Amino acid sequence: MRKDVFNFSITNNLETAGKFDMPKVQAFSPGQLKCKFLLATPFNHALTETQSESKICHFYIDDYQFERVWREPGTYVELLKKFNAVIGADFSMYLNMPKPQQMYNCWRNKVLMAYWQKQGVKVIPNIQWSDESSFEYCFDGIEPGGVVSVCSTGCHGKESKQLFLVGFDKMKQILNPEKIICVGVLPKELQADEEIIQINSFMEERRKQWAEEEVVLDK
Known about the structure:
Layout: H1 8-11, E1 16-17, E2 22-23, E3 40-42, E4 56-58, H2 68-71, H3 77-81, E5 85-87, H4 99-118, E6 123-124, E7 147-151, H5 158-175, E8 179-183, E9 196-199, H6 202-218
Parallel strand pairs: 3-4, 4-5, 5-6, 7-8, 8-9
Antiparallel strand pairs: 1-2
């Protein structure tokens, strides 16, 4: 049998929206979260996660570490179903990428989110943008309201931080989410926003754990 290298089996019947036919992704209700304290597991640690029912799985990692979910989308559905929820795919939209490549990655993210939802995975829409030119398509297909997720990792420089804040504001205007999960360090400009739920990244949790272990060893 010829391999479906273009993933026509999961893209042919997706509902789309907007000028560029971005797949439609359903809103995620806050009531779908079953745990009180949110902890996030990166996809590259999903196979070894022993408490997946109380964790959120995310894809805020290097693209090569989850390219396999695009190549073999059906292979990981049952694994993702084990988690309390899954933040949608996060193929990169770097500023130095050609615009078509940014759009392609945005489209792939939404294809996988829509597909996983159809398979019964509890997907929190991942919202991603680059510069203001991406606003033309990056929010298309995402159902307004509910819970969405963003990642602040990498927003250290002045330009990248400003682009993140501008996109964050635009996202709130267009999607009007009830809650916003932010994985990574929260910029001080957003720390008073009561709609935001901040979760440390995997490495931030590791550093915190290492620091606590050092304190114990010092006693």
